[in-house]
Amino acid sequence: MELSSILMIAGIIVIILSLFLKDKSVQVEKDVEELSINIYQETNALKRRIKLLEEELLVEPNFQVKHPEVDKPDAFTSFQKVAAQIKTGQSSYTQSDLKSEKNNKPINGILVSQVLALNGQGLSIDEISKLSTLSHAQIQSILANGGKQ
């Protein structure tokens, strides 16, 4: 036998074997496609979560934090309340009345969870008040209600 016929027979055998063997590139293509679909789904899920957090925190999409307007009692209305109390014989319009006017605003859920977590760590109301922006009365009401408003 000549060398050319041996090479031809070996080539035919290799071609026949290649038809029966699985192609690994098909499996790799499927794996890459599954991976890209998973990454796409996770990215969309993260975008939805970020959007929900933005809406919950009232943050604009360009990440500019809105500064809350502080409800300060007008000096004239405070004066009118004191004058009305004096006229009717009520003698005490105290600082606690002013604080209760401020406390009528709902408290942010993040602050509520922070107060509950700090209380769970064993901190006192004074320490929690120093760490948060809430008054003692607000903290006591949060703890009394268990975080429900």
Structure, described:
The protein has seven helices and no strands. With 149 residues, it is mainly α. Helix content is 68%, strand content 0%. It has helices at 3-20, 24-56, 75-88, 95-102, 109-120, 125-131, 136-145. The termini are far apart. 5% of the residues are buried.
List the topology elements.
Blueprint: H1 3-20, H2 24-56, H3 75-88, H4 95-102, H5 109-120, H6 125-131, H7 136-145
Keywords: Membrane, Transmembrane, Transmembrane helix
Transmembrane segments: 6-21
Quick rundown:
By secondary structure, the protein is an all-alpha fold. Helices cover 68% and strands 0% of the residues.
Low-confidence stretches: 91-103
Rg estimate, integer Å: 36 Å
Shape: rod-shaped
Roughly what percent helix?
55-70%
Chain-averaged pLDDT: 76
Multimerization state: single chain
Query: Percent of residues in beta strands?
Result: under 5%
Main sheet characteristics? none
From the N-terminal CA to the C-terminal CA, the straight-line distance is 96 Å
Number of helices: 7
In terms of structural class, how would the helical and strand content be classed? mainly alpha
Number of strands: 0
Output the helix-strand order.
HHHHHHH
